[in-house]
Design a protein that fits this description.
With 304 residues, the protein is α/β, with parallel strands linked by helices. It is built from 12 helices and 12 strands. Helix 5 links the parallel strand 3 and strand 4. Keywords: DNA-binding, Transcription, Transcription regulation.
């Protein structure tokens, strides 16, 4: 930025534009309104251009003011991105990696991908964050995560993604439950029993809501929780039917604590998981390697 533009002065101008007034901008910045007025006046004298104009009780930016404010905002974003990248490079072999993983995919990710990655990059810091589909999408869009492994319907076409079959969605029950002996279970049969729901922010629950709606039914749970482990515990206790892929409950199924019965519905059988990334986010070598491991794992799994 040239000497005639002082970043602090322009940051004041930007906040005035965002807040719609000098006093409100001063409250946000924690400075006296007269300080903001003097600095913007100095900037106007330097540029020999008006930067603010009054409209009613509000103050708005002039065309010149908007140009300066927009440049400040874009420069701030670039600087934040640079700072994140430099922070990453403090770690060895290409930096830190942050990945969002759907709760029902955590075991699969750790056992089949992360262990291999750790052998190749033992000194890289890896942050694994589990959460809802919506929180995962927001983190990728906002650049808070390098990549994501998610399950459920995807509504953001701007993200780069690879999708793979990860069904069927199953009714997961105690071995003594009335539906435990079935090869598949219909939506109508499910509707006769007590159901366990995840919050609607989970991609899997969105699928379940859509499955019931397609039959003219409302998914009405007896219990709602925000963790797969809680849903499985409720199901093991015979409290109702939980819903997830068999892979998500594989340990408890293998110990005969739960039974997974596939749901007889196209949405359940065609459910997919997704690898997601923001195309604008540059990968470090470590991030790129983890992305490739994820791609290879799911491609090979679906070729078997």
């Amino acid at each position: 930025m040239s000497q005639m533009f002082h970043e602090k002065h322009i940051s004041y101008l930007y906040q005035v534009g965002v807040q719609g007034g000098i006093r409100r901008a001063a409250d946000v910045l924690g400075v006296n309104p007269s300080v903001i007025s003097r600095q913007i006046a100095l900037l106007e004298r330097t540029l020999q251009l008006p930067l603010l104009e009054r409209r009613g009780r509000s103050v708005v930016l002039t065309e010149a003011g908007k140009l300066l404010a927009d440049d400040y905002y874009e420069s701030s974003l670039r600087r934040e991105k640079l700072e994140r990248h430099l922070k990453d490079l403090r770690y060895m072999k290409g930096g830190a990696v942050t990945i969002r993983v759907g709760a029902g995919l955590v075991d699969t990710f750790i056992q089949h991908v992360l262990t291999t990655f750790a052998a190749a990059y033992p000194n890289v810091f890896v942050e694994v964050v589990s959460g809802t589909m919506q929180a995962t999408m927001d983190a990728i869009v906002q650049g808070e995560a390098d990549m994501a492994l998610a399950f459920g319907p995807i509504g953001n076409p701007e993200l780069k993604r690879h999708s793979f079959p990860w069904g069927p969605i199953c009714a997961v029950v105690n071995p003594q439950h009335p539906i435990a002996h079935l090869r598949t279970v219909s939506v109508e049969e499910l509707n006769r029993h007590r159901l366990i729901s995840l919050s609607d922010a989970f991609g899997l629950q969105r699928h379940m809501n859509a499955i019931f709606q397609s039959k003219g039914l409302l998914f009405t749970p007896s219990y709602r929780c925000n963790q797969f482990t809680t849903a499985m515990s409720l199901s093991m206790a015979g409290m109702g039917i939980a819903f997830m892929s068999a892979q998500a409950a594989i340990e408890r199924i293998s110990h005969k604590m739960l039974v997974a019965v596939p749901i007889d519905h196209p949405i359940a059988t065609e459910a997919q998981c997704h690898l997601l990334r923001n195309s604008d986010r540059r990968f470090t070598p470590a991030s790129h390697h983890l992305w490739q491991l994820l791609l290879n794992f799911f491609q090979q799994k679906n070729e078997r």
